[in-house]
Amino acid sequence: PYTITGAPRIVKDKVIIGNGGGEFGVRGYVSAYKLDDGAQAWRFYTVPGNPEDGFENEAMEHSAKTWGGGEWWVVGGGGTVWDSMAYDPELNLLYVGVGNGAPWNRQIRSPDGGDNLYLSSILALNPDDGSYVWHYQTTPGETWDYTATQHMILADLELDGAKRKVIMQAPKNGFFYVLDRKSGELLSAAAYAHMTWATHVDMETGRPVETEGARYVGEATGLHFPGPIGGHNWHPMSYSPDTGLVYIPAQDAPWVYRTDDEFRHRKGFWNTGTDNRPASLPDDSAEKQSVLDAITGAIIAWDPVAQKPRWRVDHKGPWNGGLLSTAGNLVLQGNSSGEVVAYRADSGERLWAFDAQTGVV
Fold it and tell me: Which of 49, 53, 80, 348 could form a disulfide with 311 if both were Cys (CB 3.0 to 4.6 A apart)?
């Protein structure tokens, strides 16, 4: 059931690649192969396996303590590295975005609770040997398909009068994060998308403050933001050092989560542990339209220092293409309406559009 959806990265004398397939029940990992002969140099698992088999390293031994009960290794645990990675040659750190749990539903995967490391985390690894350096978990105890595999950007920002080397990410969960890329320290976090699952990120603990009922324990959530497609998915965001803005292809699309009471693991099949039927559109036309009206897309020009939007362009719907910013004060995007559009990077003014005659996502 493993797949590959992300591009390989070259770091010195190695090629780095992750994998996908979390929904089909796999254990995530990232691997390094030698460029000259393809021999595997190292492999880092993102979640622990069966404790009875022992642990590959201290990081896996530590992570296993955050999984509560159950036999998560039977379904795999998830944590696939299916897209974003970044490399800082000065610090010699490889940053890896880690995906959702398998199954999504923590009640089934880890019935006694726990953060379930290193799901939905940014991992910093030593690319020479694959050893753990630090991590930051964006969604502890992930249970909504909130991956942290979304595009990561390295930049130098002036924060509180000091120059900081940062890594920035807008993962599925709807918060925009700025971390110190040397230490993993959380510097700031704020909501860039509409959300009902949490109110804010506690800067003392670095953890989101969840709302009551968000975890669908015993009953469905009701209309829940973000849904599984996230406030931002794999479509790349872009940063312009000229404007100081990050351009996010954002979206709002709700979902209704409910536990699948009849769940059983079936290898190679969809294993989410959720009942998708409550998320289907209502039969009543007025109710259906109200839900459809809530499904939107946008370009958000985000100020990562102030942690707020500078400007916004709204789209007819979600799932629009990634963004490119240029030194000529342009931001370009293909959208699901079939256009390639150029905007002013500093103001969002629409400058021109090309009719591609098909969605560009």
Answer: 348
